[in-house]
Amino acid sequence: MRASKSTIPVLIRPMLESDWDTVRAIYLEGITTGQATFETTAPRDWQSWSAGRLAVGRSVAIAADDSGHPLGWTALSPVSTRAVYAGVAELTIYVAAAARGRGVGGALLQQLVVDSEAAGIWTLQGSLFPENAGSRALHKTAGFREVGRRERIAQLDGVWRDTILVERRSSLAKFGG
Predict the structure, then answer these.
(1) Which residue of 34, 67, 85, 172 shows the fewest CB atoms closer than 10 Å?
(2) Which sequence spans correspond to the domains of the chain?
(3) CA-to-CA distance for 59 and 66, rounded, in angstroms?
């Protein structure tokens, strides 16, 4: 029988440029799992990373103790430049390896939903590797549904991979702006 990890009390705050080194390190931890993204490296600087992200939805979870140690982060990217998709965003969430399975992801997703709805985003979507059971369970708990499987959507290290498309539709945000 596996011992359960205890929940980590966290505070969620907006991401700052000064968080970049830690955000990047957590991102690289996720990349090395081979189960988080098709990316094989993270941008070296904040400006490169930030250019493709929305201003809303950038949060970091920090330990609620006095250390203030970052444990995870979220960000949103536009799915299209077309005005009709202004309320649809793709989410990214990463949790530090030492904090996985301890409530950090749930706290981050909860805040992401609140922030995105306040900004008028009516649909959050994401792509998950089918083998990433932890991420699939996390998204389901946060109200996401699996829309479908995209077979052989892209290659990672020369191997074709499938993804599961997930989405969460807001009951609060006004559709169509």
Answers:
(1) 67
(2) 10-169
(3) 19
Structure tokens at 16: 């700052």
Strands 59-63, 145-156: pairing is unpaired
Query: How many other CB atoms are there within 10 angstroms of residue 43's CB atom?
Result: 15
Distance CA 161, CA 104 (A): 27
pTM for the whole structure: 0.91
- Segment 89-139, tens digit of pLDDT: 999 999 999 999 999 999 999 999 999 999 999 999 999 999 999 999 999
- Domain 10-169 fold is Aminopeptidase (3.40.630)
Residues 6+ apart with CB under 8 A from 25: none
Closest by Cα among 129, 116, 103 to 168: 116
